Fold this sequence. Notes:
Elements: E1 5-11, H1 18-27, E2 34-38, H2 47-52, E3 64-66, H3 76-88, E4 96-100, H4 107-113, E5 123-133, H5 134-138, H6 146-155, H7 165-175, E6 178-182, H8 189-202, E7 208-211, H9 219-222, E8 262-269, H10 275-289, E9 293-299, E10 305-312, E11 315-323, E12 332-339, H11 344-351
Parallel strand pairs: 1-4, 1-5, 2-3, 2-4, 5-6, 6-7
Antiparallel strand pairs: 8-12, 9-10, 9-12, 10-11
Amino acid sequence: MSPKIPATVITGFLGSGKTTLVRHLLANAGGRRIALVINEFGDLGVDGEILRGCGDAACREDDIMELSNGCICCTVAEDFIPTMERLLDRPEPPDHIVIETSGLALPQPLIRAFNWPAIVTRVTVDGVIAVIDAEAVAAGRFAHDTDAIEAQRQADENLDHERPLAELFEDQLASADIAVVNKTDLLPEDAARDLVAGIRARVRAGVQVIPAIHGALPVEVVLGVGAAAESDLAARHELHHHHEHDHEDDHDAGHDHDHDEFESFVVTGPEVSDPPSFARRVAEVIRAHDILRVKGFAAVEGKPMRLALQAVGPRVETYFDRPLGPAEPRETRLVVIGQAGLDRDAIGAALGA
């Protein structure tokens, strides 16, 4: 059976920076061919036109699919599932699918849709990304343009028009694997730090809370989470069962930023004697230093096979992937990715021991 194609679901209110984040992923796809599914509807939709300008082999124009018939939660059977089938049935399916929901759609019904018989064996939810407007959340508004959100609510007759944004925000956090606290540059440094800490206290264990500016996150952090969220619905407790919508018109959509806020480095060490103990040590170091990702390979004493390691937050996966070549060094080599300011010496000493 062919491996499932990973899909990333991106949620967040109008102006939070979803489209900017998607453009950044496309610009830094690293050879991946990415297909986009955009939940457009009403008269406010502009994301499709913004993203069609990507002009890159990573995302050709026919890789952008728009769902314009209303709420992605309400149109699963007649709109979302057929769209996914068209993508999956192509002679050359995409390497990764990114789904940008309209801002007021609840993520849970969409995640559940990945268990539909037509697609359950072919695609998996790699991760759910909640993009947060730091300035708006700090002010208690949750979105910078509430009038535009109200107009979007009224444009879809299927919506509950009374559901407060605060409750929808909690639903987004409940479903998230990564919470991106965007636009932190618009807050004083101490206020941004307090907001990140407050959100970190509200999400379930293992969810990464990452401050960002203009959605500029390393692709290795956003894609490849491996959450299989459709199989983990019980942990993503939905607080409310109504849904509403907005659409994003992000004024920073064309802004490019580099990754000064993030760093990566390589740690090398000797062979591993006990893979389970090694995996536990990696998880402990990740928790102690708030590391985002660790990935790499290790030789295991007395074993001809190479041990591969992938860690997203505190979740560590190891497996033997192939025999080591005769000229390959029998060592451990790990790439560490995190926010700038990591204690490289301490991390290196702990992982390379």
